[in-house]
């Protein structure tokens, strides 16, 4: 991922230096297990521990000659060891015993960063939902004014969506946090299964149940799909913030720095650029999810078609998910909210948002449904056509049900508030 959308912890995690450091750790753990089994001399293990992590530039230099990254890494790793010790490195292992086990460890750590960022977003949404629980605003369906709701209710729906994403990410983390040290076609022909058990336990990984030399790729597809789902939920949040920032609406505004400039030509512009960026990045994540599903099917016990895809998609997906969740939390935390504008917008249609309450009142009073609906609709049509107050056009239909206020629609709002508190308690 380009630096613009990469935050430091994830950049470090997916650097070449970190990848090779993790490979070294896997190799040493495998040798350590084999020392315990009496298969590798202890002095060879000590030489491995003293050897530095290979310089990525040196690995790349060797790879230009050997055209195989793992063999190039092993050559660079072993170059500072005595030959008698170097011969024990990678004993009984195949390339993807190293690559996939290290990858499982890295993906678990990367997912932890996304989970942490998503958890913060959930907390921020819940906190601001509580803050604005009684801030009335108009609810819109099909983009058209529907009935009054509250801004807190909107934010609560987003908080629960992120909570579901958090659950999916935890499950995906468990799925990818596995390794295998099982040999060329996963049969443990040249390596004791105890080595695999030891390596994976030390790395905090599970073991691939029936390895085929590689870890099954449905696991990685599940992870990328979970990150894409988080991205889609963040897009939903950001899209709502974009819509509410339109000039005609003006109910919220992104936080601005003193250096903010919205347009090179129009000095007055205050554009929803953060929200737009979050929406755009979600499109990349959705594309990655589809591609990772294509990576699940490999030839026989393995092929290498998935590798080039994963080098791009796995770090990019976690990096973007981490960036999105972090910036979305910043957006909501710093969001300016304009309750007066929200209340004013409720009155934009001269009271038409109360039509359902009027209809319900008539039905409750015994009026036949079709007659009640037609009478309220006739009054609503006159209000829309003439700009008269709905209460006045209702009176022309002989309907008087008293003052029409947004609070009529919030009588049972405490039910949702209680559910939100359960989410807050989860954070505590």
Automatic annotation (TrEMBL):
Keyword field contains Lyase = yes
Catalytic activity reads: (2S)-2-[5-amino-1-(5-phospho-beta-D-ribosyl)imidazole-4-carboxamido]succinate = 5-amino-1-(5-phospho-beta-D-ribosyl)imidazole-4-carboxamide + fumarate; N(6)-(1,2-dicarboxyethyl)-AMP = fumarate + AMP
Q: What sequence ranges are listed for the domain Adenylosuccinate lyase C-terminal?
A: 350-421
Q: Which PROSITE patterns match?
A: FUMARATE_LYASES
Question: Which EC number(s) does UniProt give?
Answer: 4.3.2.2
Which InterPro entries has this protein been placed in? AdenyloSucc_lyase_C, Fumarase/histidase_N, Fumarate_lyase_CS, Fumarate_lyase_fam, Fumarate_lyase_N, L-Aspartase-like, Pur_lyase
Question: Is this entry keyworded Lyase?
Answer: yes
Q: Which SMART domains match?
A: ADSL_C
Q: Name one GO molecular function term.
A: lyase activity
Checking Gene3D superfamilies in the record gives: Fumarase/aspartase (C-terminal domain), Fumarase/aspartase (Central domain), Fumarase/aspartase (N-terminal domain)
Which family is it part of?
Belongs to the lyase 1 family. Adenylosuccinate lyase subfamily.
Q: What is this protein called?
A: Adenylosuccinate lyase
Q: Gene symbol?
A: purB
């Amino acid at each position: 991922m380009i630096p613009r959308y990469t935050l430091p912890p994830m950049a470090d995690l997916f650097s070449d230096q970190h990848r090779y450091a993790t490979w070294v750790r896997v190799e040493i753990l495998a040798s350590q297990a084999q020392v315990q089994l009496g298969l590798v001399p202890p002095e060879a293990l000590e030489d491995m521990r003293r050897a530095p992590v290979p310089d990525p530039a040196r690995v790349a230099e060797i790879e230009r000659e050997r055209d195989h990254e793992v063999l190039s890494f092993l050559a660079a790793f072993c170059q500072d060891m005595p030959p008698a010790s170097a011969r024990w490195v990678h004993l009984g292992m195949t390339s993807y015993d190293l690559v996939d086990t290290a990858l499982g460890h890295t993906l678990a750590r990367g997912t932890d960063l996304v989970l942490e960022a998503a958890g913060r977003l959930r907390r921020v949404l819940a906190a601001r939902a509580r803050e604005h629980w009684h801030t009335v605003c108009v609810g819109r369906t099909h983009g058209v004014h529907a009935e009054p709701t509250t801004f807190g209710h909107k934010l609560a729906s987003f908080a629960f969506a992120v909570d579901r994403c958090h659950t999916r990410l935890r499950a995906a983390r468990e799925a990818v946090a596995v390794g295998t040290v099982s040999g060329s076609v996963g049969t443990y022909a040249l390596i004791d299964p105890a080595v695999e058990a030891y390596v994976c336990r030390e790395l905090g990984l599970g073991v691939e149940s029936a390895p085929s030399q590689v870890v099954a790729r449905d696991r990685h597809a599940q992870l990328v799909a979970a990150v894409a789902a988080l991205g889609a939920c963040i897009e939903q949040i950001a899209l709502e913030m974009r819509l509410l920032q339109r000039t005609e609406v003006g109910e919220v505004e992104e936080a601005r720095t003193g250096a903010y400039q919205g347009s090179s030509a129009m000095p007055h512009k205050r554009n929803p650029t953060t929200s737009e960026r979050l929406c755009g990045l979600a499109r990349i994540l959705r594309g990655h999810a589809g591609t990772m599903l294509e990576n699940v099917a490999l030839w026989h016990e393995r092929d290498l078609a998935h590798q080039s895809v994963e080098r791009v998609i796995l770090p990019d997906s976690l990096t973007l998910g981490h960036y999105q969740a972090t910036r979305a939390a910043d957006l909501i935390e710093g969001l300016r909210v304009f309750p007066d504008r929200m209340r004013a917008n409720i009155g934009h249609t001269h009271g038409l948002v109360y039509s359902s309450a009027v209809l319900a009142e008539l039905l409750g009073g015994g009026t036949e449904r079709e007659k009640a609906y037609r009478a309220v609709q006739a009054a609503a049509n006159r209000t829309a056509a003439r700009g008269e107050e709905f209460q006045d056009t209702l009176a022309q239909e002989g309907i008087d049900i008293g003052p029409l206020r947004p609070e009529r629609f919030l009588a049972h709002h405490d039910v949702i508030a209680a559910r939100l508190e359960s989410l807050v308690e989860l954070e505590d």
